[in-house]
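Readers of this paper often ask what the protein records in our data store actually look like. The remainder of this section carries one protein's record, kept here as part of the documentation.

:::
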Amino acid sequence: MNTALSPSTAQSHPYARFGTPSLLARVAGAAGLCAALLCGCTDLSTPAYRRPDMPAKESWAHTRGAVSAAATVDPQWWKAFDDPYLNTLIDKAISANVDIKILAARIGVAGAQIGEVQAGQLPTVDAGAGIDYEKSTGVGLTKTYDVATQVNWDIDIWGKVEKSVQAQKAEFHASEADWRAGWLTLVANVATTYFQILQFDDQIKEEQQTLDKNKQILTIYQQMYANGVAPKTEVLRQSAEINGLVNELLELHRERDTAENALATLIGVPAGEFKMPVGQLRQRVKFPDVPMGLPAQLLGRRPDVVAAQYRILESYDEVGSARLAQLPTISLTGRAGTAAFSLSDLFKVFTLSFMPSIDLPMFDPGVHAHIKTTEAQSKVAEEQYRQAVFTAFEEVENALVNLDAHKKQRVELLEQNERLRTVAAQVEAQLKEGLVSQLEVLESERSLASAELSLLANHEQILSDTVTLYKAMGGGWTDVEVANVASGSAAPAAPAR
C-alpha cells in the first residue's frame, strides 16, 4: 500500500470528498446486473449433501447371536474384559500417547483455519508513518513528515466467504472424526498388545515346563544308553529336541520384550523404561459378548466413515464457493492522511478519499478451471466414502468369521486337552503299578503341554478377535448425522473415560 502524501497535496486539498452516492449506486447496479446475467445462464448452487449410493446390506452373514437396531456398544467397551490393569494402561495411553496428541493438534489447526477464513469478511486496516529526506542541486535538505491510513473492505454480498467457512467447518468435523478413529485404534492396539504379552508369559511358563520334562527324558535316555539298552541316536535326538526348546524360549523372550517396548510407546513411556508384571492370560481376562447392530448403523458410528462423509460435504461446499467466485466482487477503499514539512504542522491539514470498485471475474478462465477442479475433487471424495464403507463391512465380516471359527476351534481344543489330561493321569497310574516306564509318563505330559499351548494361543486369538470386532463396529461412538447446515454440524461428544 502506498499511503505517502506530499505537503503540497495535503494543502491544496484540505479534505477530499467521499465518492458520491451516484458512483456507489452505479457500482452496485453493475454488480447486480452481472449477477442477474450469471444467474440466468450459470449454475451458482452448492450440491445438496446426501450419502452416495451403496449396495444394500441388511444383515451380517456370519453373526451367531441376535442382531438388533437397539444394540449399543459401551463407549468404555474394554472394561468388559474385566481386567483393572488393562483399564489402567488404556487410561495412560489416552492421556499420554503422542499420535493422539498429534490428531488433537490437527483439530486445533482446523478450528483456527475457520477463523482465518472468516477474517475474509472483515475490513483490513493499514497504517504507516514516515520521514522523507530529499536533497536537490541548489536546494537545501528537505524533510517531509507523513502519516496515512488505508481501509480496504471486500463486501461479501453473495456469501463467497461464508461458503468457504462452511467447507472449513466440515474439515474441522472430519478432523474430529480422524481423532476418534485414532483414539479407537490406540485403545485396540493397547488391548491386543497387552493380550500378546500375557500370552507370551503363559507360553514361556509352558515351554519352560516342557524343557524341564525333556531334560528328564534326556537323563533317562542317557542312563539307558549307559546300560546298553538304547542307541546313542536316541540321546542325540533328545539333545537336539532340547536345543530346539531352548531356541523357542529365547525367541519368546525376544518377542515379549519387543511387545513390551511397543506397549511402552503406546502409553507414552520411552521404550525400555516400562516393565509389565508377569501375568496369566486365562486367569486375568474374560471373554465379553459384543452387542451387534445392523449394517446401516455402522455408517454413522465408524469414525473413518463419518470423516469420509464430512469430506464429501467439504468438497460440495468448495464447489459452491468456486461457483460463487464467478460473481462480481465489490471493494471499498478509504484513505486518510496528513503531511507537512515540520512536525508542528503535521496534523493541521488532512486528505481523505473514498473509492468503490468492482471486479468482474466471470471472464477469468482460471475461475472456470477451478470450478471443474472442485467438481472432480468432489467425485474423489464420494469414491473415498464408498471405499471406507466397503472396508468397514469387510472388517466387520472378517472379525465375525475369525471369532466364530476360533470359538469353534476352542471347543475342539478343550476336548483334546481333556482327553490328553485323562491319558496323562492313566499313564501316571500305570507307572505306579509298574506297567509303564517314566519315559512314557513324560511323553504323555509333553503331549498335554503342547495341547495346552494350542489352547492358550486360541484364547488370545478370541480376545484379539473381540477387540477387532469392537473396533470394526465403531467402538461405542454415538451416531453422527452429516448434512448441509449453515453453521456446520455439531461436533460429536468424546466418550467418557
